């Protein structure tokens, strides 16, 4: 366990995913920026952010449930591979990644409707 470092994790992810790792890292930074921008906009409009954030979490969880049956398609697995409960749990966990993007976009576009303070 002493050999595990951030550099080793980055190298492993690069060797596994290649440029897709870079795209994912950039997307994660953009999503964090959008969440921060949403928070600032709601704060400037004197409206609470927590309620909007939790709505985004609910949208994310629902989107993950909708995307779960499609996980075998983007993992190039046979379509009928979702057989047992463990398969569905893992597929749901994998579907949380694109669903998180959907949830963040929901929060961001909802925050855009917040009136700016005068």
Written overview of the protein:
By secondary structure, the protein is mainly alpha-helical. It has one domain. The protein contains five helices and no strands. The chain has helices at 6-17, 19-44, 50-67, 71-74, 85-112. Helix 3 crosses helix 5 (85-112).
Layout of helices and strands:
Layout lengths: L5 H12 L1 H26 L5 H18 L3 H4 L10 H28 L6
Helix pairs in contact: 1-2, 2-5, 3-5
Structural class of the secondary structure composition? Answer: mainly alpha
Major sheet size, sense and barrel closure: none
> Strand tally, please?
0
The share of residues in extended strands comes to: under 5%
**Mean pLDDT, all residues:** 90
What's the helix-strand series? Answer: HHHHH
Shape assignment: globular
Evaluate the radius of gyration: 18 Å
Number of helices: 5
Helix content: over 70%
Distance between the termini: 55 Å
Low-confidence stretches: none
The number of domains: 1
Keywords: Membrane, Transmembrane, Transmembrane helix
Transmembrane segments: 17-40, 52-77, 89-109
């Amino acid at each position: 366990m002493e050999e595990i470092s951030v550099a080793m994790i980055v190298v492993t992810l690069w060797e596994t995913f290649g440029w897709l790792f870079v795209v994912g890292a950039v997307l994660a930074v953009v999503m964090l920026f959008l969440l921060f921008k949403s928070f600032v906009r709601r704060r400037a409009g004197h409206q609470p952010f927590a309620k909007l954030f939790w709505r985004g979490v609910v949208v994310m969880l629902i989107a993950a449930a909708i995307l779960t049956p499609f996980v075998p398609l983007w993992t190039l697995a046979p379509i009928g591979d979702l057989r047992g409960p463990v398969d569905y749990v893992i597929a749901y966990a994998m579907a949380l990644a694109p669903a998180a993007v959907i949830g963040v976009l929901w929060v961001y576009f909802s925050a855009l409707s917040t009136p700016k303070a005068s």
